[in-house]
## 1
Amino acid sequence: MSKSPVFLTGCAGFIGMHTTKRLLDQGETVIGVDNINPYYSVDLKRDRLKQLEHPNFHFHEVDISDRQAMEKIWTTYEPKRAINLAAQAGVRYSIENPFAYISSNITGFLVMLELCRHQKDFANLVYASTSSIYGSSTNMPFVEDQMTAVPISLYAATKSGNELMAQSYNYLYGMPATGLRFFTVYGPWGRPDMAAFKFTKAILAGEPLDLYNAGKMKRDFTYVEDIVSGVVAAVNRKPTNKIGERHPIYNLGNNRCEDLPRIITLIEETLGKKALINNMPMQLGDVKETYANIDKAKAELGYSPQTTIDTGVPNFVRWYMDYHK
Ligand SMILES: NC(=O)c1ccc[n+]([C@@H]2O[C@H](COP(=O)([O-])OP(=O)(O)OC[C@H]3O[C@@H](n4cnc5c(N)ncnc54)[C@H](O)[C@@H]3O)[C@@H](O)[C@H]2O)c1
């Protein structure tokens, strides 16, 4: 009997494209959904989709908050595994356009929960959470069971909301779910609103790059292929539902806390060109430091990140140059 397909939302996105590609390479069938919204370059999203052309990839251009359209696709395939990556991402944009976050991250997520919980023999909904839910906590490295109820952005609040919503479905209906808290993901085909992309673009253009808080920030940077390994391991592990216990939630980071300016140095070295710096104050909603404890993901998912920024950042820069000719 052939394996049931994986339903994956956000497939034209950065992490979604890489995850879909890996699943297809492993012989899976993927039902991909994305609304190709213009939060950043639609061309980049369409170019990512071109990387996914494959007989086992079935793409549907739909908004996950559109309940009827989603039901129609879902019932065509009746998937038993789902990965929800579609979301309005970005901490800073949640200050400009808060409504986009509620529509995609809360209403859209509810649609996914409803579809999964009515599906017979449903095995696992893996969904993207974020390191941002640890807020300004200085209790590092962050561990999954520490307190996360003090979000400092609406983006973080919606992602915390996803964890709570999934937990209520897990309790009420025994619906299997797995939450993954991603830590600053970067790599080829990355997002234009993220540091590596913005820095590379500015350095190549000979323009000053905005460096917030004089660069006094630290991040646990995680290479996209390592994240994908965690996502794929999670979707293939059926979580056990125990009433009164939380559904599994894992940090997916690199377990290395790097100074942000180190990224600039690595980009400069790869390009052979110096950056011009425009120092800016700390941004509202941004956290100063992230650092993941990944022991739980190591033990239960066999998660083992392989890529340091010394390899990953040059890989990104080479992709950027190639893609932009
Ligand atoms: N990249 C990171 O560093 C990072 C860190 C923590 C968490 N995450 C989370 O991981 C997930 C994927 O992130 P990404 O970096 O690939 O972002 P991305 O923006 O590149 O991908 C998200 C995709 O979802 C689509 N989308 C958004 N709203 C939608 C909707 N309502 N209906 C259908 N499609 C919709 C977008 O068009 C986009 O292609 C997101 O949930 C994000 O919040 C990412």
## 2
Amino acid sequence: MGTKKMITGLLILVFAVAQPAPAWAGAAKIVLDAGHGGSDPGAVGVNGLYEKTVNFDVVNRVKAILEGRGYEVALTRDSDIYLSLAQRVAITNSLAPDLFVSVHANAHTNPSINGSLVLYYDKDYPQADYPPSDAMAALTPESKRLAQLVQDAMVKSAGTVDRGLVPSAVYVARMGSVPSILVETAFLSNAGDAANLADADFRQKLAAGIAVGIEAYKPLEKPGAFADVSLSHWANEAILKLKNKGILEGEAGKYYPERALTRAEFVTMLERQFSLPEPAAAGGTTPGNATVTGSTYGGGSGGSQGTSAAAVKFKDLPASHWAYAVMQKAASTGILSGYEDGTIRPDKPLTRGEAAALIDRVIWPGSSQKATATVFKDVPLSLWSAASINRLKDKGIVEGATATTFAPERSMTRAEMAALLSRLIR
Ligand SMILES: [Zn+2]
């Protein structure tokens, strides 16, 4: 299957320092607008809290939540600066998002009034002096639906009084080009609401509710590969592809992409991708693949086992282990060796050096395991995996962690492994 050629280049992706990939082109794009800012504090709470500060905090919390779920989020302001209403709308129009949400906190002359409400432009309640853009008049049903979803979720999440939707000619809800709402989270003029707004936990609940409403209005068209691998994760495409091919699996809907890859997981993926060589007939005394015995794995110096399929036993690899069969197969054929203490450590993290050696053995079985030159300053000739690392480097397959180092002891993550293997599947 042209494996050597196919694998060339792919390890560069994994062994180079991972760079965040650009956001998924199809991600839903949201513009969030923190009301007021700079010289304009907005309402000032009975407790002295500035509306602009609260708005900014809530908006950033919504942003973090949505980005974590794979949304693309832009802010009209990402610092404490003054922006006119026209500037906010112009920024939004230039970004052409799927929707616009402006976040405010309310104030009323009656200090007993409290609760949450959402403003939207409604063509059924026009104000003659404040005509809407054509787009916003036409978008009335969409803005209203967004407003209701956000209001319902926010009230439910934060436990605020539900003051409902308010048709309004407010500028940012009237002059845009996409479904637009203005959220009034709570009343700074009310002692109870103002105290709540000063509390980060409350602001997080507001943000969570707003995010839920936005998600309900604009669900992601394509989910990430797993619940914990969002569309914007740099390895999402690779993980999704391998998931669909049955090469990798998650646990209860999660993939744990940043978790260190274990030795058993790595061998399992190699088996699924390459089909590891079958062990020699298990006759009990038949030697196995003699060309690779002795290349002990993981820094040990033994290598006495692995000469016979029947002789391969590891005290930490019971038959009940989920990867027992594939680990035994890999050990029988010398792809993977155990340690001097009789273990094979299936659940321990795999290092970059180990990964290089394993792939070397699968792709170029029987190659010399003696290094002849120092290529990376942290890969001395005496390092057990030096020959493999150097060979892959010579063939242009791996790069260092830096120009002069390889970081052979650093763990490989599950996301890095997925990115590597995905390149093998066209
Ligand atoms: Zn305001």
